[in-house]
Amino acid sequence: MFDINAFSLKGKVALVTGGSYGIGYAIAQALHGAGATVVFNDINQELVDRGLAAYKKDGIPTHGYVCDVTDEDAVQALVQQIEKDVGVIDILVNNAGIIKRIPMHEMSAADFRKVIDVDLNAPFICAKAVIPGMIKKGAGKIINICSMMSELGRETVSAYAAAKGGLKMLTRNICSEYGEHNIQCNGIGPGYIETQQTAPLRERQADGSRHPFDQFIIAKTPAARWGTTQDLMGPAVFLASEASNFVNGHILYVDGGILAYIGKQPQ
Ligand code: NAP
Ligand code: GCO
Questions:
Q1: Residue 267 — very low, low, confident or very high, per pLDDT cuts 50/70/90?
Q2: Alpha-carbon distance 141 to 213, whole Å?
């Protein structure tokens, strides 16, 4: 007999990195809605304050922390502070990320390294920080926010694709190394989602027409629309809950069908 409470996160502590707005904020809302105590960090006080105001407006009690996820000492201190404030972290959502859209032959090594640092090294740092507590508790959930670029490349996003491809394999390796401790590490691969990060790809042209990339994504998506952050909420709750205890090392693509579809013939 299936118990719907398998989706409940009551009594669980969840950390969402980069959770002030965008996809991270939506996932935090969802985890709260499923009963979790949600905390978040962001890279500066201004963003944390922006996030705190949003959480308060939505009636979500939380703690917000300033922490650069690429700084291992800061992340270790963050996890210790969260354990003091609310308890051992049961659920980690590695959401914080950046993208730099530059043709590879024009991209500096410093810019390439920066994207790798935030989008790949930081999820390693954050997972490493929470795993000991999860091992002691005998359970844990790590959700890495991957991407279409975990599977596909495109012009100007070489560093991002390399990072997100690596994040897919880091997800699988955490699954392999810690599954025996009842820790499940999975990824969510959002398709093209309407957030600040993709706003440049959706800007209206001077003549009021849709951005060429916007038109391309509409033609490439069977759902014939961009995703919204709400589309990610249910998948996040599923992967954070006991309902997914035998799902491990999996990347759940929430992409409206992009990866399955060759795309619509141009009209
Ligand atoms: P976003 O709007 O840029 O939000 C990312 C958040 O992470 C921001 O609050 C950002 O702060 C924060 N952050 C960046 N670097 C950080 C650092 N070093 N330490 C702590 N926080 C940091 O992005 P989004 O669209 O919500 O995407 C969230 C995640 O989903 C990212 O990993 C992204 O790669 C992934 N994703 C997005 C899409 C999409 O279509 N939007 C699709 C697939 C995957 P700042 O504002 O200072 O940058
Ligand atoms: C881009 C977009 C994508 C999305 C996302 C798709 O420039 O192609 O920013 O990379 O952010 O990762 O899944």
A1: confident
A2: 35
Q: Active site residue: 25, 55, 65, 160, which one?
A: 160
Pocket of ligand 2 contains residue 154 by CB under 6 Å: yes
Taking the C-alpha atoms of residue 186 and residue 127, their distance in angstroms, rounded to an integer, is 12
Token pair recorded at residue 50:
């922006």
Report which secondary-structure segment, H or E, holds 237.
Answer: helix 233-240
Query: What pLDDT, in 10s, does the model give residues 54-80?
Result: 999 999 999 999 999 999 999 999 999
**C-alpha to C-alpha distance for 228 and 226, rounded to whole angstroms:** 7
CATH hierarchy code of domain 4-193+226-260:
3.40.50.720
Ligand 1 binding pocket, CB closer than 6 Å: 17-18, 20-24, 42-43, 47, 68-70, 95-98, 118, 145, 147, 190, 192-193, 195-198
Which tokens go with 39? 């905390």
What is the pLDDT at residue 266? 79
* Section 24-45 average pLDDT: 98
Distance CA 183, CA 135 (A): 8
| Residue spans of alpha helices (H) in 38-196 | 45-57, 72-85, 109-116, 122-137, 158-178
Residue 102: exposure state from Cβ atoms within 10 A (0-12, 13-18, ≥19): middle
Domain ranges within the chain, ordered by starting residue:
4-193+226-260
